[in-house]
Amino acid sequence: MSTRAAAAALPSGTTKVLVLRAYAGYWAAQVQALNSGQVTGSGLQTFTTGAALSAVNANSFRLTQAGLVMSGQPGRNPVVTAISAVAPSSGVQTATVEDCLDVSGWHQVDARTHQLRDPAQRLTRYRSVVTARTVGGVWMISAVRNETGTTC
User: Would you kindly state where each structural domain of the chain is located, as residue ranges?
Assistant: First the structure.
């Protein structure tokens, strides 16, 4: 790899901050949407696009259909591990964020009674690998791969 290509792959200060800001916004909006049972008005579309947006919408629908909402908040420890150069043909830039999610403080509860309804066997800590990309020059979360087969 050339020195220039290697430098482009390393997270730079300002870009790293912008990616982490988008990731924090994604989580704040997702928590609001899943805790309230309302995706509309959560701000999710400000920070999320593509497969990541579809996944949160599907999770919200699944919870609502089951009469559940989430309560609390997950713990996070994100690190930007890579940032690509801007693609000359599309102008898109991508980044990878790795996180160790701790959902021990984020629970499924009955939407009416607020009684705990967590699954009996649930993993409370797992690794998440997230792809962020620029959309019109703005960083957005586009894909999330939760590695629930491993803990961190």
Answer: 3-147
